[in-house]
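Example record for the data management plan.
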Amino acid sequence: MGRTAVVVGGGIGGLAAAIGLRRIGWEVRVVERAFGPDDAGAGISLAANGLRALDALGVGEAVRAASRGQYTGGTRTPGGGWLARMDGAELERAVGTPIMGIPRAALHRLLRAALPAGALLTGCEAGPVTQIGPGTVRVDRGGTPLDADLVVAADGIGSKIRARLFPAHPGPVHSGTAVLRAITAQPLALHTDFELTWGRGSEFGHIAFPDGRAEWHAVLGLPTGTRFADPAAELRRRFHHWHDPIPALLDATRPEDVLHHDVGELRTPLPSYAVGRIALLGDAAHAMTPNLGQGACQALEDAVTLSAALTTEPTVEAALVRYDAERRPRSQAVAKAARQAGRMGHQLAHPLAVALRNTAMRLTPSRTAVRMILRHHAWEPPGLG
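Corresponding structural encoding:
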């Protein structure tokens, strides 16, 4: 079996794949078109499955040290009433860890630090990927070819490699929502680790970090391409009357730090995550809405599963067949569940539907909620040898 790989995309999934491949003895180069990490002003929640994947990659301890456990909080109404409280301790007893919150930029730094100097090629646009022989795949890098035994396409929701492999696939679609988010410029006296507030057709949430700062996000139903001249002012207008600490989070944010992204997804599932010696990974394979907080965790699962398959199968092609068989059903099921969660969450706008949803949530026992979470969090990584 070959021992060289090119990973296209230096996000969480791409970096994790490179770490996993190196742990099984492969030589890896990561091609990233950006000159630095994207989305530095965002945060991320890592569930047990993502943390177990990071453990398998050898970086779990460092990530936990830079994270804050989500033990307290839950889901609320705009007036401040609780729909469901988070019991992080109960979740920790069930799966061995609470959900952890970390700045996305910190996670990027820790993943990059696990790779040797020179493995990550930034500011490089990857061109077409072609099979040039029975066991060699070529990535065009601005006119300079990179040949390898395996190519991992981790180039995001707008993956050009996916589009070339599956030209008949409709590609990503707009979910009908946009997310605005930022990290506060200074610490706040927050009373919970995590909160999610559902209004009629909108959502606001926050994640607290170890240094007292917090990431917040606002999800709005907006047509694709909608932008505000002053996003911070628009959010204050929409959310100033919502419960504390929402106004305080907005007031603690520099206007220039607010990010605005349309939320897309691969609503039509791919027929395969592998073609020949090319593997699709992360958002390139199964971009999903963020309603379950599983996008990055599923990419991390992909990275470990791919590396493990390459240690047990006799050829790269056989390993990718196994990778596809193990990852496609689970990740596509999680993507479907995330879409359904959005429909029952911030996308609800009719007063009667919202009232019924809120009543059902208040009557759901905590243990039942934990069991529902376990469907996605309870994953054990395969060994990397």
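Summary line stored alongside the record: The radius of gyration is 21 Å.
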